[in-house]
Amino acid sequence: MSGPDSGDHESGDESTDALSSDQPGAPSNRADDRAVSAGGDDDRPDRRSSPDRTDGTTTGSSSVTIEDDGVVRWFFRSDDDTVVFVRDIVSSVAIVAVIGLVLFGVSGIWPPLVAVESGSMEPNMERGDLIFVVDTDRFVGDDPVDGTGVVPLEHAEQTGSESFGESGDVIVFRPNGDEHQTPVIHRAHFWVEEGDNWVDQKADEAVVGDATCDDVPTCPAAHDGFITKGDANSGYDQYRGGAQTDVVQPDWVTGKAQYRIPWLGYVRLFFDGLFSGLVVPITSAHTQATVVAGLESAGVQSAAIQSAGVQSAAGGSLAVAGSGVATALASER
């Protein structure tokens, strides 16, 4: 009887080891086997942990460079704090610019938004309101004055149309056509022609009282135009009113009020008051001539004063001419 072959003995030992690993309490190597089977060759790269993709792109923007991606793509995808800050500013400016262009396209004038700085149009317009204004040839109502696009109160009363609570369009104009005066927003009451005795023929007696044309410097009318009045004022702008202006020629009208946004105009008025106080503090109710004279005496040339955009405003305050979306607008008492 032959003894066990050495090869059989070794094979038996391997079988015994395999069986013993299945016994309870015996250490198992199956998990390691699975790990090796899943991992494959040690030389193969781990794609899950690598930021680089085989298709040539990257999973994050930190590796975006000007050399590889160009300036535009780098600017919009970079995570650099400075670039992100600049990008936010540029985006905000772009949004404001788009809104401004849309408003300009609708209104036809710039700026299309103005802030009311006094209460002469109360209660239909309050101080601090932001008013959307349009060109006079847009959104024209029934029976406007020929060639103006403005419907005065006397015409609107016949058609029954209203604007801001009463009959007649509310217009924005520069008193006496002076570009250096703050614009006024008041209601157009009626149209007069050159030589008209408007006080006796068209004016409301409740407004002018016993006054006659001889008592009013702007009567008879020196030219064609509108007689205007603030809703809260007791007199016409052409006689004891707030604006103290001659008959408003169509060329002096810069816009027509269309919509009102309450409170939002206070933002513009705040910055106007802040900058005007920094430019030159003033407490009297004199005109710009007094301010200009004081500046010139301090060595400031007239050209520099004009280029600074300093304007005289109602109540003696100063407004700095703005170039933004909104500009301060005086609605004088």
Helix content: 25-40%
Structural class: alpha+beta
- Helix/strand order: HHHHHEEHEEHHEEHHHEEE
| Overall number of strands | 9
For the structure shown, list the relevant keywords:
elongated; 333 residues; alpha+beta; 9 strands
Description:
The protein is elongated, with a radius of gyration of 40 Å. Mean pLDDT is 73; it is low at 1-61 and 277-330. The protein has helices at 6-20, 30-39, 66-69, 71-77, 81-107, 153-159, 198-201, 205-208, 265-279, 288-297, 302-308; strands at residues 113-116, 130-134, 170-173, 184-192, 225-229, 253-261, 310-312, 318-320, 326-329. The chain is α+β, with helices and mostly antiparallel strands and 333 residues long. The chain starts with 5 loop residues before the first helix and ends with a strand. Among the domains are: 66-104; 108-264, no CATH class.
Quick overview of this protein structure:
This protein is an alpha+beta fold. The chain has 11 helices and 9 strands. Helix content is 33%, strand content 14%.
